[in-house]
Design goal:
With 78 residues, the protein is α+β, with helices and mostly antiparallel strands. 54% of the residues lie in helices and 23% in strands. A two-stranded antiparallel sheet has the order 1-2. The protein is extended, with a radius of gyration of 21 Å.
Amino acid sequence: MMKQRLAFIFIIQTYNMPKHTQVITIEITPERFLENCSDDELKELDLLIQSERYQSRIREKEIGFKQINKKDENTNKH
């Protein structure tokens, strides 16, 4: 399952005080992301995914996966 990492850098500085920097990393799975979307956000994501822009990217990736799988099948036939 693909995970996305988001890094947030918080910089807190007050007048005449030392600067404090903290990095926080959060892992979010696609499923967790979708579960936290509103109904309107899910509809918008669906419209974007169904658009030609993203469908062409999906088709390109599918062709690449098919070529890799076919190559693996030919390698295992020995």
